[in-house]
Design a protein that fits this description.
Blueprint lengths: L1 H22 L2 E8 L3 E2 L5 H7 L3 E7 L2 E5 L10 E6 L3 E7 L1 E10 L7 H7 L1 E12 L4 E10 L13 E8 L13 E2 L8 E2 L13
Parallel strand pairs: 1-9, 2-9, 4-7
Antiparallel strand pairs: 1-6, 3-4, 3-5, 7-8, 8-12, 9-10, 10-11
Amino acid sequence: MRFALRTLLAAALLSGSFACLAQTATGTLVMEVDKLQSEVPLSKELQELIRTGGVDWGIKGNELVLTVVDTRYLDFDYGFTTRYGYRHALQLPVGTYRITAVSREPRRSYSEQRLLDRATFVNRNVASFTIEAGKTVTVRVGPVIMDEDALNPAVFIPTLFASVSSADGGAPGGAAPRRKAVTLRDNSSTAWPDYRGPIKFIPR
């Protein structure tokens, strides 16, 4: 009887250990940010000013958020800034993650609240990726200056292009990674005042 109880107890402990391992299994996310590119001429002064910049991003639950909006308006579990031309590796629990972008149009205003209300928007589910145990997924972000409006130092907003690839350089499923502009406003964008999702920081 005692032997049977010990066997059952050992089996239960072993089962619990495997369950714990399964729950904490992780894979690697690599955030790779390209050097800033520009489709319009840049002065030497401006090149020097922006070359030390980077891309702000964060994780909220199973959502990866890219933002050109000040992060004080966002609520992340983990927040990061990756400099242009650098990469950042992060261990994440296995699962499927959605990519969301928070952006704003290059308008000028003396009121930050007015910019939030009129120019800021959210692009939800612009892409997704799956973290598998022991494997690596790379999200590559390319910041590009698209026009003259984005060059004003008061509203410096590069367009962010993003693609997802696996460890072998291909997209999940074997296709070539597709580069997509994720911070441009379109008919599917949600205006900031109308957004009610979890990444919006609401002061208590």
